[in-house]
Structure prediction request, 247 residues.
Amino acid sequence: MQIKNQVIVITGSSSGIGEATAYLFASEGARIVVNSESNIEGGMRVMEKIKDMKGEAIYVQADVSDPIQAKLLIDKTVETFGEINILINNAGGYESQDFLTASKESWLRVFDKNLFSTILCSQYAAQVMLKNGGGKILNTASVYGWENTGDPTGMAYSVAKAGVISLTKNLAKFWSPTILVNAVAPGYVHIPRFDTYPEETQAQMKAEMLLGRFIEPSEVAEAFLYLAKNDAVTGEVHRVDGGFGLK
Prediction:
């Protein structure tokens, strides 16, 4: 698929992986829909930077774990650009929990952010794509979604991301060849919060990857671009984990 002039919806794109992905796709000539739940300032900043790059972009504030707001995001995209070519489900979040005491509500919060947001946006975007002849859906999974790789204090996150991986494969089977569905599973991606961790904690995290360093958001963005361009890949989960899975 040629990326130029394609309409790309990127949930959770006011910072981190989503922000880097928005800039990379914009540099390829895509029209970008920036989204965030609460970081309005960040979302507007990303949109304005894309415009400074001579690109096309809009910003839509929406909590995509809510059905009404997820539909609003898709409807606003179609209203503005007339179509959706690629949906990148990147919205998510980690919440540390003690498994023995974690409440059902805390599990549902994590599921909402990581799994149900992906389900809802895929539902609404796919309706547009199927009507218009096809498209692509790309999901942000995690190495924690693979077997035996989860964090004991992040059990809900690991289970939610495992659900994203399963959803990716099942939707690929269900919609192929009209809609190609793939995922990217990052390892520890460098975010500002990590810089506040003690040096010992950062060193331990880096040591879990063969590269011995954090992964940059731009490196994950490049994996999304590869999957967006390639028309012969579906149902795959592309690891960008720095060798985490081999440790």
Notes: The two ends are 35 Å apart (CA to CA).
